[in-house]
UniProtKB/TrEMBL annotation:
<keyword id="KW-1133">Transmembrane helix</keyword>
<feature type="active site" description="Proton acceptor">
    <location>
        <position position="459"/>
    </location>
</feature>
<dbReference type="InterPro" id="IPR017853">
    <property type="entry name" value="GH"/>
</dbReference>
<dbReference type="InterPro" id="IPR001554">
    <property type="entry name" value="Glyco_hydro_14"/>
</dbReference>
<dbReference type="GO" id="GO:0016161">
    <property type="term" value="F:beta-amylase activity"/>
</dbReference>
<dbReference type="InterPro" id="IPR001371">
    <property type="entry name" value="Glyco_hydro_14B_pln"/>
</dbReference>
<dbReference type="InterPro" id="IPR018238">
    <property type="entry name" value="Glyco_hydro_14_CS"/>
</dbReference>
<keyword id="KW-0624">Polysaccharide degradation</keyword>
<dbReference type="GO" id="GO:0000272">
    <property type="term" value="P:polysaccharide catabolic process"/>
</dbReference>
<dbReference type="Pfam" id="PF01373">
    <property type="entry name" value="Glyco_hydro_14"/>
</dbReference>
<protein>
    <recommendedName>
        <fullName>Beta-amylase</fullName>
        <ecNumber>3.2.1.2</ecNumber>
    </recommendedName>
</protein>
<keyword id="KW-0378">Hydrolase</keyword>
<comment type="similarity">
    <text>Belongs to the glycosyl hydrolase 14 family.</text>
</comment>
<keyword id="KW-0812">Transmembrane</keyword>
<keyword id="KW-0472">Membrane</keyword>
<feature type="active site" description="Proton donor">
    <location>
        <position position="260"/>
    </location>
</feature>
<keyword id="KW-0119">Carbohydrate metabolism</keyword>
Length: 547
């Protein structure tokens, strides 16, 4: 049992901490683990309705209905009925709590939650934003809006997944609100920009604090880890009754950009565009200049002083003092791997220096460790450039995820991995040059976690409403090709919206929830161009025809 009063616990902390229904030993923050088993599933080619040419006998302009074979693999109803129960949660809107920490439009939210409840979801996920709760001054916490929200969730007998969000919201895919870091943190950052990651132009990235200040007392006498820990301790005390009552089922701790375990290597607001490889978050200066600066003890051109110090120390300990700087030939945000000397096939990434640097770069990330992200583009290249710049030392000859999974196991944590709805085929159609392989990446990460016996939860990366996406999620949640019948511990749907509430989309979502729960369901035809009124009219036409 760990003592949650030790702030060092959160340096490499649990990404997803289960606090209910685990049956295992829990710590004072409520972490637990569970063991689950699953019968393997079967695939089949299902059938769906398709509109044929108009039939003049009907006299109403509606088309006759015929059955056609659907070429995409699906899971049979009989295969899902009775399979393992996978809880389904729904993310709440990013702006459900205002910057003044008030619940936004509680009446409408209640109605939407009641509709979600009718679909038998298990609960909802909400971000607790550092920039809202501790907005004005250190250790002055305002939880009022979250209290109102949690009460509504409890009254509906739903569970809560709560995210400790220590990053900025805004400027990335899907961000529809702007929630900056706390004002007092931004003020300190103006005087000390080394608190943030900076790109090669010296432009600071205000999404999150650099790992370099995890143990530096730059926040009015406190380290970043101490600030995070005290925020979480305040939450634990404030919402004790929700822990004790089993309403809060999971805690996620996000300490990176978008709450993910990665470097901010591909920020859209700094000009990155998919499928650019991104940038390493350490200095990129010419090698001759690099050697001169290191020999003369000058690091003025380096753009993360804290991480640079760590790199220089590692290089000196390893007996290679000239390696105390990042690569100068790794391109920029929107480069392609083959355009760089570092990432091209046979490039410097696989040299002695490259292996040293990538080991150090990824170990700093592991040490900071919280939650995995899905960097699937350029997966099919030898160097996996986009993963390397994000901090995952995962190449064709080096497994980058087992080490992370092992770190999480040490802390009794789980993996929460995204992009489980993405199909490699679709990525090749839209961006063939990216050589993306999200399916292989998902399986590699899941297997790394399962091999060290830690739970795996998952999310979709982008909004999805169609059956193909849901089928892919189910395939990953209850994998057919896993001989041990393992399955994910929970799935969180991104996200509650007016589009999800549309009738056809919500009907499809309801079916998905039933399939995740292993319940019997009626296979409502997907993407049919008719509704109940059309079906009624169709049968009425047949009735008139028979008469």
């Amino acid at each position: 049992m760990r003592d949650a009063s030790q702030s060092s616990d959160f340096r490499s902390n649990a990404v997803l901490v289960s606090v209910a229904d685990g049956g295992g030993e829990t710590d004072s923050f409520g972490s637990a683990s569970a063991k689950c088993q699953l019968r393997s599933l079967q695939e089949f080619c299902g059938r769906q309705f398709e509109r044929s040419e108009p039939n003049s006998c009907l006299g109403h302009g509606y088309n006759a209905i015929s059955f056609v074979e659907d070429k995409s693999p699906k899971v049979q109803e009989s295969d899902l009925s009775g399979t393992a129960y996978v809880p389904v949660y729904v993310m709440l809107p990013l702006g459900v709590i205002s910057m003044d920490c008030e619940l936004v439009d509680p009446d409408n939210l209640l109605k939407e939650l009641q509709i979600l409840k009718s679909a038998n979801i298990d609960g909802v996920m909400v971000d607790c934003w550092w920039g809202i709760v501790e907005k004005h001054a250190p250790q002055q916490y305002n939880w009022s809006g979250y209290k109102s929200l949690f009460q509504i969730v409890r009254d509906l007998d739903l569970k809560l997944q709560v995210v400790m969000s220590f990053h900025e919201c805004g400027g990335n895919v899907g961000d529809d609100v702007h929630i900056p870091l706390p004002q007092w943190v931004a003020e300190i950052g103006q005087r000390n920009p080394d608190m943030f990651f900076q790109n090669h132009e010296g432009r600071p990235n205000l999404e999150c604090l650099t790992w370099g200040v995890d143990e530096e007392r730059v926040l009015r006498g406190r380290t970043a880890l101490e600030v995070y820990f005290e925020f979480m301790r305040s939450f634990r005390v404030e919402f004790d009754e929700f822990f004790e009552g089993g309403i809060i089922s999971e805690i996620e701790i996000g300490l990176g950009p978008c709450g993910e375990l990665r470097y901010p290597s591909y920020p859209e607001k700094h000009g990155w565009k998919y499928p650019g490889i991104g940038e390493f978050q350490v200095t990129l200066i010419p090698s001759i200049v690099r050697e001169f600066l290191i020999q003369n003890g000058d690091s003025s051109l380096c753009y993360d002083q804290h991480l640079l110090t760590s790199l220089k120390t590692a290089a000196e300990v390893g007996g290679h003092s000239l390696w105390g700087s990042g690569p100068d030939n790794a391109g920029s945000y929107n480069s392609r791997p083959h355009e760089t000397e570092f990432f091209r096939d046979g490039g410097e990434y696989d040299s002695d220096y490259g292996r040293f640097f990538l080991n150090w770069y990824s170990q700093v990330l592991v040490d900071h460790g919280d939650r995995l992200s899905g960097i699937h583009w350029w997966y099919k290249t030898a160097s996996h450039a986009a993963e390397l710049t994000a901090g995952f030392y995962n190449t064709s000859n080096h497994d980058g995820y087992t080490r992370i999974a092992t770190m999480l196991k040490k802390h009794g944590a789980a993996v929460n991995f995204t992009c489980v709805e993405l199909r490699t085929m679709d990525q090749h159609e839209n961006f063939p040059e990216a050589l993306a392989d999200p399916e292989a990446l998902v399986w590699q990460v899941f297997k790394a976690a399962w091999d060290v016996t830690i739970p795996v939860a998952s999310e979709n990366a982008l909004p999805c409403y169609n059956r193909e996406s849901y089928d892919k999620i189910l395939e990953n949640a209850k994998p057919l090709n896993d001989p041990e019948g393992r399955r994910i511990s929970a799935f969180t749907y991104l996200r509650l919206s007016s589009v999800l509430m549309e009738e056809q989309n919500f009907t499809e979502f309801e079916q998905f929830v039933k399939r995740m729960h292993g319940k019997k369901y009626i296979l409502v035809p997907y993407n049919c161009a008719f509704n109940l009124a059309v079906i009624t009219s169709f049968f009425f036409s047949l009735f008139l025809l028979v008469r």
